[in-house]
Amino acid sequence: MSVPAIVAAGDLRAAKAIHGESKAYLEIGGAPLVVRAIAALQAVPEVSEVWVVGNAERPRLCVFKSARHIYAQIINDEEGKTLAAASTLSGEIREKGKVGNKTVAARLVGELLAAKALAASVYEVVFDRGGYKFHGRVKALADGLRDKGLKL
User: Fold this and answer.
1) pLDDT tens by residue, 132-144
2) Cys-Cys with 125: which of 53, 61, 81, 90 at CB 3.0–4.6 Å?
3) Phi, psi of 107 (to 5 degrees)
4) DSSP three-state, residue 43
5) Lowest mean pLDDT among 11-20, 60-69, 77-86, 90-99
6) Burial (Cβ within 10 Å: 0-12, 13-18, ≥19) of residue 7
């Protein structure tokens, strides 16, 4: 018997056996409703199936951010090689000391990565946000890249 059928049938013991004792249940009109399961289904974000691929002419700029740091690298996907990389853990950024908040540090990472990219003869990239929204630190990184002459 499927979980919706168990819930519709009102068999609370069977639903608890499937979902565990720690789940929250709510009685609505005499039928139990698995609140946590419905909340989890409603909270699942839509995942974009768009893949960004770079090539020799326009390599991919890949961004990753954690709670404390931001990392970016320029990758030629045809060859599988990293052409340039920078992060808030890079020596050039770390030796400057505390530069302000994380957004200011992300802008500095963008400027450093643009300098490395131009030295590697990369003038134009495809921007891969990595699923992050284009605001805050991701936007600051892109602004730093544009200010130093890299075309996104």
Assistant:
1) 999 999 999 999 9
2) 61
3) -65, -40
4) helix
5) 11-20
6) buried
